[in-house]
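Could someone model uridine-5'-diphosphate with this protein?
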Amino acid sequence: MRILITGGAGFIGSHLCDRYLAEGHEVIAMDNLSTGSTDNIVHLAGHPRFSFVKHNVTNYIYVAGPLDMVLHLASLPSPVDYLNYPIQTLKVGALGTHNSLGLALAKQAKFLLASTSEVYGDPLVHPQDESYWGNVNPVGPRGVYDESKRFAEALTMAYHRYHHVDTRIVRIFNTYGPRMRADDGRVVPNFICQALRGEPLTVYEDGSRTRSFGYVDDLVEGIVRLMATDVEGPVNLGNPVELTILEFAQLTLKVTGSASEIVFVHPTDERTRDDPKQRCPDISKAKAALGWEPRVPVEEGLRKTADYFRVKLGLV
Ligand code: UDP
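Reply:
Sure, complex below.
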């Protein structure tokens, strides 16, 4: 197959590039490098079936030749990034998805939308299954990301129903692993880098909010299976092992062997406004439709991620 991956120089996009290349396909990674980095794909330079195009998918996308799949990963998924770049976040979710769908239609290619557990907002149903419509504040600071992804899902379904594009939607829950940006502001790189540097781990508010953390290899396996299967509507992919953020901080200290202290901080910017109180995927649909479930335990995934950051931070 010939596959276009938008956001291909990003954290998840670059792992998908690796996977599809390893399976013998041709991969074009497209990225404007706003939050992605060529560091994530430098090992692919010169690969005969890989190419990189620097482009912002908010603008019209031109790709010469046929395409079998368009995987639309381009986005600003870290709360800190989307609070800093709210309009770009809305544009890539709306205009970027429109351009990517238009390309898929023109090329008669299968399309994947990388959506998010944020479509559930601050959920009133727990754990969240795909039938839940969510609890999103459209005018709050997180609305720029959540609503752009909700719009992207609606647009994807409209292209499916009206233009008969062969579409898939994956709702990605908190995912971590090598190639996350050390400074992207999310809890996994924050805690691991703080622990490795011997700095205090910054638990926001009282640490009672929950998240469920999935390792990137498991997510990639789920996406590959999803693309190979006919599935109507969105599919959750995530690891249902739910931890409070305080428990996650303690686990990070254990895995890294760090003597850092844990501090409770109360950010005065909008970072924690509308922060979902709890989040855990119901993965029954993925289990039944894809025969998929996470394989990498959180401690093992964290160990691998810490190994990556040790090198990245120049600590080994
Ligand atoms: N968080 C924290 N300390 C940090 C960064 C994040 O306590 O240094 C909290 C944040 O308030 C949220 C959770 O960790 O409750 C997950 O945040 P993240 O930004 O990783 O992703 P989200 O799931 O909110 O999109």
